TrEMBL record:
Residues 72-109 form the Zn(2)-C6 fungal-type domain. This is Zn(2)-C6 fungal-type domain-containing protein. One of its GO terms (molecular function) is DNA-binding transcription factor activity, RNA polymerase II-specific. Keywords: DNA-binding, Metal-binding, Nucleus, Transcription, Transcription regulation. GO terms for biological process: DNA-templated transcription. Residues 153-165 have a biased composition (Polar residues). PANTHER family: FINGER DOMAIN PROTEIN, PUTATIVE-RELATED, REGULATORY PROTEIN LEU3. InterPro entries: prtT, XnlR_reg_dom, Zn2-C6_fun-type_DNA-bd_sf, Zn2Cys6_DnaBD. Residues 134-165 are annotated as: Disordered. The keyword DNA damage does not apply. It is found in: Nucleus. The lineage of its organism: Eukaryota, Fungi, Dikarya, Ascomycota, Pezizomycotina. GO terms for cellular component: nucleus. The keyword Nucleotidyltransferase does not apply. It comes from Clohesyomyces aquaticus.
Length: 679
């Protein structure tokens, strides 16, 4: 029966050498002996003439049952893997284990080796980074004191300020995006700022955000790099000014007072997202968007690979879904996919519970009122973008309108109150979600639509609800007025699914036509007033505008309903809508450019009954699964079928002609739309 040794005789835990210096000197030589064995051997160890201990033959260590103790190399110990070095050494002399030989690693056995914990190493690296940042802050502060007594620095700063163009008066070194740091020309600060600011490759997102007050010198104006692309500091300031001037009012979720350097330090992905949106209409470099498209898209995919994510990744996806990169086909658009990812990350981060961040972290977290308001604003923006992208695609929306958005404003916290414009936009998107769920959620119908007689009562209820939302704000901006009109168009578009024999069918179709015409005219008027409604509009604004144009086209092409309306004014408005859609285009052959051409082709084509069939029931749709956007997909489907028939006829005629000539030149192509199937 085994017994536990007393503390003073325990060979591993309680042994202390009597001659510490001699033990440490011979520690490496007796690397495979237990401490007790070394203690017993030291007094009788032979000594050379020069006083150093002689080399002795060390037998393999023996464990309690008499067998030899296995040895493991450093690499196998670090990974906690089985090492066969001892087994191979018994068979034939060998200095490398199988794993190290296979992986090309250095196979060593060090007595002093200890496994390194990865978490401990991460903590050490984080402490090292913090110390470097503090040192940088200290040097930056001392550099400020040096600059105050250097006249040449002041001359340089004043000359830079005087050379700015008008838009840089808003974004220059003393503007809204400035950090108050002049351009460094001294030899003290240039190496430090250059080594930290010039980053040649993106790095994964970090949930830890460094405050502006922590590192004041880090947020100085600087050029940025993304892969092989370079953007100067002046261009960055100008692009940020363009974004917050023309794009931010459509989705006011970001902070305009935050500098570009702060955005870059918080999240490179969010920084490049803002740059990408602003570059859509950048006159100084019209090709900037196409240069950024591939690199920023790759940066987004790389960032999504690393978890956990931060709130800034959610905000980046919001911008990408609202203003996606140009594409020529709906099948290659990733907006709906990124929108779902955005909602999942937001919920995982606990943005839907802005007052309870402790429920989604491992440590105690306390946010300020400003941070809570920012989280609430981000969560509201997520639901707005998710609903808008879903309605524009004709698909279900993975939204979550919970307490924080519906009843949070009634709480005692002032941070739970949204901005008026953002709150009105949120209410209209909640209305569109209620309409979709109530009308297109019937499990007994193949396409999910409730029966026509049930929809008639729902139309009245939702119309009254929308009037209440519209009456909330006495002064509504043009953008929010468009959102309300889009919500009304979404509701009335379901009249195209009604039975022609139902009550008031004619009135509902005419109301739909006039609503679509009103939305088009309202958008044109708003663009004439601000010149940014069409050029800088989000993608879901374009989708709603296209839907209204197809509704006007479909009603004008019907011989029954066209007798109730003014065809001449309708034609003029329709052609104006085609011009506006083409102005929304960012590059050749993208979706707005192609849809503008398709609308023009459908209007001028002489084929009877191409868009609408004759009679009162000629507006019935064959594509009925895309909710309010079904009218767009139905018209495109009819257009594709007509083009296919034309291509088939032309192909047969050309093939017959070539057979007579003894030549075959392959299938014919449409001279107008060679890739029509991709729209």
């Amino acid at each position: 029966m085994d017994f536990e040794p007393s503390p003073q005789h325990h060979p591993f835990l309680y042994w202390h050498p009597q001659n510490t210096h001699q033990y440490l000197a011979n520690y490496r030589e007796y690397s495979f002996q237990s401490p007790l064995q070394v203690h017993e051997t030291l007094p009788s160890s032979p000594v050379k003439a020069n006083g150093s201990p002689s080399t002795v033959s060390i037998p393999e260590p023996v464990i309690r049952n008499g067998s030899k103790k296995r040895r493991a190399c450093n690499e196998c110990k670090q990974q906690k893997l089985k090492c066969d070095l001892s087994t191979l050494a018994d068979q034939h002399p060998r200095n490398t284990c199988s794993r190290c030989k296979r992986l090309g690693l250095e196979c060593r056995i060090d007595r002093s080796f200890r496994r390194e914990r990865k978490r401990k190493r991460s903590d050490e690296l984080e402490k090292e980074v913090d110390s470097l940042k503090k040192e940088l802050s200290r040097q930056s502060t001392s550099a400020h004191a040096t600059d105050d007594v250097t006249p040449s620095i002041h001359a340089t700063a004043s000359s830079d300020t005087s050379s700015m163009n008008p838009i840089r008066l808003l974004t220059g070194k003393s503007g809204m995006f400035s950090t108050g740091l002049p351009t460094r020309t001294s030899s003290v600060t240039t190496p430090n700022l250059g080594s930290l600011e010039v980053i040649t490759r993106p790095f994964p997102e970090s949930p830890r955000i460094v405050r502006d007050s922590d590192v004041p010198g880090y947020f100085a104006r600087a050029s940025r790099f993304l892969d092989d692309f370079h953007l100067s500091a002046d261009d960055i300031d100008e692009l940020f000014a363009l974004y917050f001037m023309y794009y931010h009012p459509f989705l006011p979720v970001l902070d305009p007072t935050t500098s570009p350097g702060q955005y870059y330090h918080a999240s490179p992905l969010l920084f490049w997202a803002i740059i990408s949106v602003a570059s859509r209409r950048y006159d100084n470099d019209p090709n900037l968007l196409s240069k950024l498209a591939r690199s920023v898209t790759n940066l987004t995919w790389r960032t999504l690979q690393y978890v956990p994510h931060s709130k800034h990744v959610v905000q980046s996806l919001m911008l990408f879904c609202t203003w996606p990169f140009p594409t020529s086909s709906n099948t290659t658009d990733v907006s709906y996919m990124w929108m779902g990812t955005m909602m999942q990350i937001a919920v995982q981060l606990g943005l839907h519970r802005p007052l309870n961040p402790d429920n989604f972290t491992k440590c105690r977290v306390r946010f300020t009122e400003l941070e809570i308001a920012d989280r609430l604003r981000t969560w509201a923006g997520c639901n707005i973008v998710a609903q808008s992208v879903s309605v524009g695609s004709g698909l279900a929306a993975p939204v979550q309108y919970d307490w924080s958005l519906v009843s949070g404003s009634c709480s005692d916290s002032l941070a739970m109150i949204l901005d008026r414009d953002l709150d009105l936009h949120l209410r209209t998107e909640m209305f569109r979600d209620n309409v979709s769920r109530a009308i297109a959620s019937c499990v007994s119908d193949p396409v999910g639509l409730v029966p026509t007689h049930e929809r008639l009562s729902l139309y009245k209820v939702f119309s009254k609800e929308l009037e209440e939302i519209e009456s909330i704000g006495s002064e509504v901006s043009d953008i929010n007025r468009f959102y309300i009109s889009a919500a009304r168009l979404h509701l009335q578009s379901f009249a195209l699914f009604d039975e022609p024999s139902s009550d008031s069918y004619i009135n509902r179709i005419l109301s739909l036509y006039y609503m679509a015409a009103s939305l088009i005219q309202q958008t044109l008027d708003a663009d004439r007033a601000s010149s940014s409604m069409i050029r800088c509009c989000p993608f879901f604004v374009y989708q709603t505008f296209v839907s209204a144009s197809f509704i006007v086209l479909k009603v004008l092409k019907n011989n029954y309903f066209s007798s109730f309306i003014d065809i001449q004014s309708g034609r003029t408005l329709f052609h104006a809508s085609i011009t506006a859609i083409r102005r929304m285009s960012l590059e050749c052959n993208d979706l707005p450019a192609r849809l503008g051409d398709v609308l023009g082709y459908l209007w001028s084509d002489a084929t009877p009954n191409l868009v609408s069939r004759p009679g009162k029931g000629g507006l019935q749709l064959q594509i009925r699964s895309r909710m309010s956007m079904s009218v767009v997909y139905d018209s495109l489907w009819r257009w594709r079928e007509q083009v296919r028939e034309q291509l088939s006829t032309d192909h047969l005629g050309i093939e017959h002609e070539h057979e007579n000539l003894g030549v075959y030149r392959g299938p014919a192509r449409s001279p107008l739309y060679p890739g029509f199937g991709a729209v």
